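re: ur question from earlier - yeah i can do the single chain one, its not a big deal. heres the input i used so u can compare w yours
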Amino acid sequence: MTEWSNWSGSVVAHPAAVARPRGLDELATIVAGARRLRPVGAGHSFMPLCQTEGTLLSLADLEGDIEVAADRRSVWAPAGWSLARLTDALWAQGLSLYNQGDVNPQALGGAAATGTHGTGETLGSIATQVTGVRLMRADGTLVTCDAQTEPELFQAQRLGLGLLGVAVAMRIAVLPAYHLEERVERWPLALALDRFDELAAASRHMEFWVFPYADHVILKRLHPVEPEGPYRHANDVNEGAFRIACNISRRRPGLIPMLQRGMMHAIGGPKRRVGPAYRIFAQERTVRFEEMEYEVPRADGLATLREALRYVRKVRLPLAFPFEVRTVAGDDIWLSPFHAGPCLSISVHQYAGMPWRDEFAAIESILRGAGGRPHWAKRHTIDSASAHALYPRLADFLAVRRDVDPEGKFVNAFFDRLFAIRG
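and the output i got, formated as tokens:
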């Protein structure tokens, strides 16, 4: 029996078949012939989005290439390509994505379908950059949808969770290739919070990491600049030292507060580098973890973060990883966590192999209490009633889903429960 697991190892599936088609005809045969099917990218989802006992479908080997529009403001790109492959191909054409997160192995289709994002108060998720989709329906036929053609399908598909069909290619908005300056430095937590709005407005991209038991943050800011010669890669954090600290934390959780304060005191002076945007965005994240992320309305975000940090310290939750704090612009996408306006994105992590369920649940109640909406691909416990309350257009999305996939070919047990699809 075939076994598949996600990146953190916490989600396991035993699909009846794993398909990696190379051509569209082969893909159409697989899709039309499957009784149950879930698309899969790099497995960076922490929820069982891809879990299936049917066919697990990867488009990583599907033939295709990028097609640059005449005005060079958009490209059609294979949805199965990783963001690493896509951004490398774009750079060769003198182009860049508007924004990225800090890792790049995810498939383009999966990143858009789950609302993957970077940071920047004027910048939305990758789904906001999608302006068209070539979608294979449950019967194996292809349809192209955008704001003018099949607009309801397009609105649902922009962040569609793989429930409407198989995205074969996506038209993505792009910019002329640009370079970024990265500045990473240690700041006092109190100062970073007090000046947060100023810092966010002053840089195209700004985020920070804060260990819950430390009084400083690792502040990272990115801003477009002119090139400065050959690029030399350097990670924004020391993964080796961090892995050692995490292994100690797993064996001796009582040492976590001391370790976190020690790590922050050991950070040296400010670091700066300049390079191609896609190289500066993407970091090497080899220390595996479990993650929960909530998108909290911006106006309440910092107060909510303060409350969550106070709670962790009060009850001494054994969290080995820092919180990650980012800004994301609002959008109008039906199932986007950012549909109600700009958000503060608060990510809570735990080292792989350490307990996380009770720890996340305690913090989740704080984030949800502030009106937060979960990142679909990261740990959360919302149910169907909560989903409908948080997403006013969910009923519209589910109506489109019923129209394009009445037999539920793309529905797995998780989505069946989450959205009460079969009642």
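The chain has a mean pLDDT of 96. not sure if urs matches, ping me
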